[in-house]
Amino acid sequence: MEFSGRRAVVMGGSRGIGRSIALAFAGQGASVAICARGAEALERTRAEIEAIGVRAHAAPCDLADADAIARFLPAAAEALGGIDILVNNASGFGRADDEESWAASLSVDLMAVVRASHAARPWLERSGPGANIVNIASIAALRPTKRNPPYAAVKAAVVQYTSSQARILAPQGIRANCVSPGSIEFPGGTWERRRTEDPALYDATLASIPFGRMGRPEEVAEAVLFLASPRAGWITGQSLVVDGGQLLGG
Question: Which end of the chain has the least Cβ crowding within 10 Å, N or C?
């Protein structure tokens, strides 16, 4: 039980990668708080966490709303008795090169990371050795794209901000790292929809992955747990790519 006694907060933790991260922490003994917009999915995941036998807290939170984030983090800290680990996972998935998509990506993918990190910092500072932040970016941050330029550009900003966080927070003993997943498929997710709605894109993406399959949320969660654990105690400011070699195909 590697995280027994630890308290993890997963922003955007009700489904997909966020859900798998939350369940993985719970499976290793951590108390877990999650938030997202959808109350029904939140309650299902909260119940799954609680069924593992650890303390669970869940509350709806629109991560594009600064006030909502400022309310959620203190409530999560109170419910768990503090915060040792913060995972910033949510995305606004800005696709088109237009004002609406840029606004969605900036507000959720970037500013929610900034705001949640600021809000959690007092508890992270009180946590002592081992406190850390893990931000979820994407391999889209590492190459040009025609399909989703706002998403890619803002995820690149998350990678850069993570390195700045690491430098800023090191004197307080807080680490900050980033995980950049490749194409991850799960029920209700983007790639499950692409399989039927845009099979040409799905097949081309699948062909670009040397292992011949999409990634699973649990594989991203394992990388997050490593970076959040004492085993990564001398790692900070880094971005760990979890893509099955997808970037190797160009």
Answer: C
Is 168 domain-assigned? yes
Q: Which of 72, 151, 161, 186 is catalytic?
A: 151
> Reduced to 3 states, what is the DSSP secondary structure of residue 206?
helix
pLDDT tens profile 170-227: 999 999 999 999 999 998 888 888 888 889 999 999 999 999 999 999 999 999 999 9
Cα angle 56, 62, 67; round to 5: 100
| Domain harbouring 106, CATH code | 3.40.50.720
Cβ neighbours of 224 (radius 10 Å): 29
Instruction: Record the tokens describing residue 139, joined without a space.
Output: 């391999």
CB within 8 Å of 107: residues ≥ 6 apart: 63, 64, 92
Decide if 161 is catalytic: no
Q: Which of 89, 87, 81 is nearest to 126 (CA)?
A: 81
Separation CA 136–CA 159 (nearest Å): 9
Domain containing residue 13: 7-184+216-249
Task: Report d(CA 55, CA 3) in Å as an integer.
Answer: 13
Backbone angles phi, psi at 39, to 5 degrees: -65, -35
